[in-house]
Amino acid sequence: MIVSPGAVVPLTPDPNTHIKIAVDTPMKRFYEEHVTLLDRRDFETLVRTHYHEDARIVSTEYLVNGHAELFKHFAKYTGLMDYLKVVSTDKWIESEATFAFEATARTQWGLTRVHDAFWLRDGRIIRHFTGSIPLVRFVR
Amino acid sequence: MRVTFTVNHQSHTLDLEPRVLLVDVLRDHLHLTGVKIGCDTGQCGACVVLMDGVSVKSCALLGVQADGSSITTIEGVSEKGTMNPLQTAFQAAHAVQCGFCTPGMIMSLTDLLARSAQPSEAEIRAWLAGNLCRCTGYENVVRAVNAALQVAGSPAHLVTETPLRKFYDSHLRAMLAGDVDALVDAHYSADAVLTTFEGVISGRDALKTYFRDYLSVHTDLVIAATERFVEFGDSIYTETVVRSARGVTHAYNAFVVQDGRVTHQFAGVK
User: Fold this and answer.
1) Which of A55, B79, B93, B103 has the fewest CB atoms within 10 Å, measured from its CB?
2) In the A/B pair of chains, how many CB contacts fall below 8 A?
3) pLDDT tens digits for range A69-96
4) Phi, psi of A108, deg, nearest 5
5) Which residue ranges of chain A lie beneath pLDDT 50?
6) CB A32 within 8 A of CB A50
7) CA distance A98 to chain B (A)
């Protein structure tokens, strides 16, 4: 059975379109709230309301397990987030319990393509995978 | 300058003078003396480490340039004190004499083997052009690499052997063999969900249809390189270079594996 993306709006092929994600779905609202909490540096609310107690973040850069590590993780990256600005959300997909996106972001290392995937249980993240590809490399 | 980076899966935040070389940070600040200083001018390769999976000469980089990166040194390639297959092969093939160049060689070759599953002798020798050895003459080093490949069978096995790594390799083998029934029945739970940007696929029947369609389009499928492999608890994250009749793509996949089966998978193309 192929699960329909439901209310997800088909992506336009226009690369100049700025934000191209679902207009109004529960996952979209969750994502927007997630970004808002990050922007506000409200990590207390972010961790408690968006992540399960035993949630994990998996990336090539860091591995985070559970609320205690999540608090430390977000606190540690506060300085880095000063540089973070989402330029465009380029791809979006969601199902009842998962969503994923690709976005172009400006970071302290320059323009970067980021991809994140989330699995939620009872409305909170249980697994979060994240990766990035620098579009302009700083080192090498 | 305040710098945060990960070394051998441990996060470090250091205040560094901007002039300090990465090799000195690793040796003097973090006491990882497996990283050697030979020429100190970027020629000998004794100081090679992996930065975000790519081999770099740590005497040719400033410590502050490592900010935000993930570094792996020779101390980070063994598993709980047990040498990995490449290290074991170096010992067995007597690819070590004085040993000073060996950590850099191992790190360079780890990068090579992540890029190429079966490098030829010429490729191995060309790759080691940046690693100078004045003892072995390279003969036994090449033998060691070939021995490691036979033992490990896959570059994905060169760093660690874990249940999740074996599961991932088995998944890949079934995929590359085009055996969709074995791929799905043996590796996915009955209600597994695969999330891709083309759609969300749920359940074994839908997964079999999806993979048959995928393989019918992507004929002559080869995983040219596994650039990243991270496992954590029940989760796997990979970045691979995929070659098929459709061309070369850089793919990323994330898996949640519970009770020996994938329950959730995310897949995308860079």
Assistant:
1) B79
2) 115
3) 999 888 877 666 666 777 888 889 999 9
4) -65, -15
5) 1-20, 137-140
6) no
7) 7
Contacts of A92 in chain B (CB under 8 A): 197
Q: Round to whole Å and give the CA distance between B230 and B236.
A: 6
CA distance B118 to B121: 9
Beta bridge partners of B50: B55, B72
The mean pLDDT value of chain A amounts to 77
Q: Do B193 and A76 touch (CB under 8 A)?
A: no
Task: Name every chain A residue with its beta carbon within 8 A of the beta carbon of B70.
Answer: 60-62
φ and ψ at B82, to 5 degrees? -100, 130
**Would you state the structure tokens that stand for residue B72, as one six-digit string?**
């792996």
Q: Is B138 on the interface with A (CB under 8 A)?
A: no
Tell me whether strands B2-7 and B10-15 are parallel, antiparallel or unpaired.
Answer: antiparallel
Cα–Cα distance measured from residue B206 to residue B204, given in angstroms and rounded to the nearest whole number: 5
| Crossing angle of the two packed helices A66-76 and A43-50, in degrees rounded to 10 | 150
Closest alpha carbon within chain A to B197: A93
Which is nearest to A18 in space by CA: A84, A83, A90, A85?
A90
pTM exceeding the 0.90 threshold for the entire prediction = no
CB atoms A93 and B56 under 8 Å: no
Checking phi first, is residue B141 left (phi over 0); if not, alpha (psi -120 to 50) or beta? Answer: alpha
* Eight-state DSSP code of residue B27: I
- pLDDT one-digit tens code per residue, B209-226: 999 999 999 988 887 777
Which DSSP state fits B62? B
- Give the domains, in start order, of chain B with CATH numbers: 2-76 (3.10.20.30), 85-152 (1.10.150.120), 163-269 (3.10.450.50)
B41-97 pLDDT per residue, tens? 888 999 999 998 889 999 999 999 999 888 999 999 886 677 888 898 898 889 999
ipTM of the complex: 0.77
State the Cα–Cα distance between residues A125 and B189, nearest whole angstrom: 20
Phi and psi for A2 in degrees, rounded to 5?
-90, 120
